[in-house]
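ok so for the tutorial part 2 we go from a plain amino acid sequence to predicted structure tokens. step 1 is just haveing the sequence, like this:
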Amino acid sequence: MYSTLIRTPRKLCVQLLFVTVIGLALAGPLNSARAAMLEEAREWFVNNTANQCRKADEIDALFSSGDIKAVTQHQIPRTDYEGKLQPDKKDTTLFEFFCDSGAYNRHNIYVLYDDGLFTQLSFAQPTIAVVYEDENSDSAVKSVSIIGFESRLTVVNPHFDPKSRTLKETGHWRGVGDASNESWWEFMGDRFVLRRYRVDASYDGEINPEHEFSWPRP
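step 2 — the prediction. this is what the tokens look like for a chain of 218 residues:
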């Protein structure tokens, strides 16, 4: 998608990346406390993501197109580990960082900021086994089963709804989007809890997820 990357000094391009995003990511006036928090987030990103996200100069080239936000800040009402609101406690701050992208999938990471500490969050994800009728992915799907779970640090093509505290992922298995997986996590306490997982494993040109698994609240 992007054939040319602009090479600039790392320190300069990271400053440009995050300073430019201030107006995009934060609604309302940028007071000193919020500006300081964003600067801390910038420093955390530069110092902690070198082995999992793109280099800062490459990200800067992508953001110069105006298509992608480097970081978005969410204020989330605090809940306990059962999802009950705790109005007597201050909101939690969640940072959403762009990490990487490919031909048709974008990858973000999520970092919790609480009492001056940054914590990168991980996400439970099912490991699935797909069986096709003719042992060929072009044939009909015979079965989809969960054979285990894994933990991931990135979320694919994410959408976060602060009101419901729900994060959705849509991972495309190929560009036309007819085969994919979707996940829904609910933010509870200081973590995201997997609630739903849906799979469209058929390469049939149609968007028709056939298999869904759910883990509702008790």
